[in-house]
Amino acid sequence: MGIQIDVIAGYPINDEMERVLGLAEAVGEPVTVTFMWEGRDAAECAVMVPAATLALWEHWAPAAYPASEAGKGNRAEEPDLAHPAEFGPFTLFRRRVGGRTAVARKGVVVAELLNPDEAHWLEEKARNVRQGFMDPKQKTAFEEFLARQESLDEQ
User: Fold this and answer.
1) Which residues fall within 8 angstroms of residue 46, CB to CB, at 6 or more apart?
2) Backbone torsion region of residue 71, taken as left when φ is above 0, otherwise alpha when ψ lies between -120 and 50, otherwise beta
């Protein structure tokens, strides 16, 4: 993953959360975050993926992350789903299915918090598929290049 950041998030008024969310958006790459929520014993590790990066990964990934594994991170307990959590101009919407948390600013999703295993899986699948893909112009040029090459018998 991109950057490793440890964040202590306790109160919605804490601007640390706002800075981290702003950083992920500004650098445009995944940011690994460890949350030490007040009142919980265990830390929660997640990968904050900017919305555009996640859209790219999901475009290239051939399938969805296996549902049986989604959201199984190291959460100590089920998250409180009653109200979205607000941190400065950002609002976190935890999804009931899949364990993802959408991060919105002024009504627009700017990033998502994913389980580190899911983020790694998506990034790997997307990279593998994308590396094997050639757009039509590139494929035509490559075929022409191969056609001009001598066969092994002729060498």
Assistant:
1) 32, 33, 35, 73, 101, 113, 114, 115, 116
2) left
CA proximity to 32, closest of 59, 12, 7, 51: 7
Of the candidates 70, 95, 91, 75, the one whose C-alpha atom is nearest the C-alpha of residue 17 is 91
**CB-CB neighbours of 13 under 10 Å:** 10
Residue 7's SS3 state is strand
Nearest-CA neighbor of 21 among 83, 137, 108? 108
How far is Cα 69 from Cα 3, in angstroms, rounded to an integer?
Answer: 24
What is the tens place of the pLDDT at every residue in 26-79?
888 888 888 776 777 777 788 889 999 999 999 888 777 776 544 444 444 555
CA 21, chain centre distance (Å): 13
Cα angle: 31, vertex 34, 35; to 5 degrees = 120
How many residues are recorded in the chain? Answer: 155
For 73, phi and psi rounded to 5 degrees? Answer: -40, -150
